[in-house]
C-alpha cells in the first residue's frame, strides 16, 4: 500500500492561495491520487482526483509531476470556511481497495 | 446530488450492549466501507464489502464486529458487546467501482457512538 506523507498543519490568511503537498514515493502504476476535506464531526468530502499532470475543478487544482511521487493540492483564494483537515490518498483502479488515511494536513485560515 | 446517509447521528450505549449502526449507500454504488475515527485521531479503515461479502478487514474489525446488507439498500455495522474504546465516529462510505475508473469514496456524516 502506498504511504503518504503530508505536513501536519498549515496556516494561511483569507484570500491567499494555499498549496498542500503530499509525498507518495511508492505509488503504484495504477494508483490514482485523491484528496479529501474533513470538517469537525463530518465525514471526509471528496475534493479532487487525478492520475498525472494537472486536474482542475470548481474548488481546487491538483498538480502531479511526471514521476508521480508527489502531488500538490492548490486551493485558490481560501476563506475562513476552508479551515479543515485535508487528506491525500493513493489507490488502485479497481476492486475493494482499502483506502488508507494518513494524518492529513490541518489547514487553519486566519482573517 | 445523491449522498450516503447514516442513522442515528448519535448513539449512546452502555458497555457490553449491542449496537447497530445503519447506512444507506448511494444507490448505484457497488462497494461499501466502514471507517471509524476516534476523537482527535485519524480516519481508520474497518472493513470493505462487495457482492454481499466482506472483501477486506482491518485488525480492528475483530469478532465483535459484523456487517450486513440485509435488503439491497441498507448496510449495517453491528458491534456485539461494546467496549469503552469503541467510542468513536463511525463513517460509512460507498463507491461506484465500475470499469477501470477509480471512483472515489463518498462518505456519510457519521454516527457518533458513545459507550459509557
Fold and architecture overview:
The complex is a heterodimer of chains A (111) and B (116). With 111 residues, chain A is mainly beta. Helix content of chain A is 0%, strand content 47%. Chain A is built from no helices and nine strands. Chain A has strands at residues 9-13, 18-23, 32-38, 45-50, 53-56, 61-64, 70-75, 84-91, 105-110. Chain A has a five-stranded mixed sheet, with no helix packed on it. With 116 residues, chain B is mostly beta strands. Chain B is 0% helix and 48% strand. Chain B contains no helices and eleven strands. In chain B, the strands form two sheets. In chain B, strands 2, 4, 5, 6, 9, 10 and 11 form a seven-stranded mixed sheet that branches. A four-stranded antiparallel sheet of chain B has the order 1-3-8-7, with no helix packed on it. Chains A and B meet through β3 and β4 of A and β4, β5, β9 and β10 of B.
Descriptive labels:
heterodimer; A: 111 residues; four-stranded antiparallel β-sheet; 9 strands; B: seven-stranded mixed β-sheet
Topology:
The complex is a heterodimer of chains A (111) and B (116).
Chain A: E1 9-13, E2 18-23, E3 32-38, E4 45-50, E5 53-56, E6 61-64, E7 70-75, E8 84-91, E9 105-110
Parallel strand pairs in A: 1-9
Antiparallel strand pairs in A: 2-7, 3-4, 3-8, 5-6, 6-7, 8-9
Chain B: E1 5-7, E2 10-13, E3 19-24, E4 31-37, E5 44-50, E6 53-57, E7 65-68, E8 75-79, E9 88-95, E10 106-107, E11 111-115
Parallel strand pairs in B: 2-11
Antiparallel strand pairs in B: 1-3, 3-8, 4-5, 4-9, 5-6, 7-8, 9-10, 9-11
